[in-house]
Design brief:
7 helices, mainly alpha, 166 residues, 55% helix
Length: 166
């Protein structure tokens, strides 16, 4: 007979397994999106173009499964694709950095103009949200030292009012 402890452990392992497989699925799908974008940017038309560019070394059905996110691909596969499409391996496989090989990592955003430029890259963020968000950012930035000038609990009125986009 199973004890409550055994049932709880089994349930928890199932939850952790589901969480891990959801994360793996998400990562596989994100890699597939980057793979397709890299192929399109390289000017290759579909999986047949990849097979032709590889002189038949890459199997069309295997590549289709990779690009559609049905199957994951290995680092070794990613290295081959990255070289063929002239993109960085780190970007293609891990989503880190820039697709352009050897492009320097972006520098830190300094000042209001650079922070707002970054915020404008958020899809769907209305322009009128930039000033309140900048206010929120500056609230947490140190004023000449390593410590913030005050904590959020010191002055609740200093927080900008944010409105949900309609």
């Amino acid at each position: 007979m199973s004890s409550a402890k055994d049932i709880t452990c089994t349930l928890l392992s199932g939850i952790f397994y589901t969480m891990a497989s959801d994360q793996e699925k998400f990562e596989r799908e994100e890699r597939a999106k980057r793979l397709k974008a890299a192929r399109e940017t390289a000017g290759l038309s579909g999986p047949k173009g990849v097979v032709n560019a590889s002189d038949g070394k890459i199997n069309e059905n295997v590549y289709k499964a990779h690009e559609q996110g049905r199957n994951g691909f290995t680092v070794s596969d990613a290295r081959e694709y990255a070289e063929m499409f002239n993109v960085s391996l780190e970007w293609l496989y891990l989503g880190i950095g820039s697709p352009v090989p050897n492009e320097p990592a972006p520098s830190k955003a300094v000042g209001e103009a650079e922070v707002k430029k970054l915020l404008r890259r958020i899809d769907g963020l209305p322009e009128e949200a930039l000033d309140p968000l900048w206010g929120l950012v500056t609230f947490y930035l140190p004023k000449g030292g390593d410590q913030p000038s005050h904590s959020p609990s010191d002055d609740q009125s200093a927080r900008p009012t944010l409105h949900r986009a309609k």
